[in-house]
Structure formats: C-alpha cells, structure tokens
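Changelog note: in this version the structure field was regenerated for every chain. One regenerated record is shown below for reference.
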Amino acid sequence: MFNINSYLEKFKRLEPPGDTVKTAAVRIIFETIGVKVEKNEMNVKDSILFLSVSSSVKNEVYMNKKAILEKTRVLLGSKELKDIR
C-alpha cells in the first residue's frame, strides 16, 4: 500500500532556490555590517555562500560570520547556509 507520509518526507528536505538565499543574505549583511552587497556578487553552492567582493568587505563579513549565519537560519527557518567564503 502507498504511504503518503513517506512520499511527502522528501519535500521536507527541499532547499530554497538560490535567489531566496541571496536575497536574505543581502538583507542580513546590510543589517549586520551596513554594507550593500549585490546579488550578482554572490553565489550559493552546496549551502555555502561565496562572495565576490572587495577584501575589506569580506573581512567585515568574516568578522561577523557567526551572527550573519544565525540570522539567516532564523529568517529562512532552517540551516540552509553552512558557511560563507
């Protein structure tokens, strides 16, 4: 017999589209360090956010990485971003 619960289980593990994560990251980075980062300056792969910005912005993000990741988890409702590089 078909079990609907086991079928729906796979939908619990779906990741949000990269654009949703990028939008959240742009907002959270601006709120945390006050620097506007554009969506085209970031890439999300395997739950890791890669930034293509100046070294001074990267340093500010890295110094506040823990807070940014935590706020992203709260906003997205799950642990979608594992790291920022």
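Spot check on this record: The radius of gyration is 15 Å. Helices lie at 4-12, 18-33, 55-63, 65-76.
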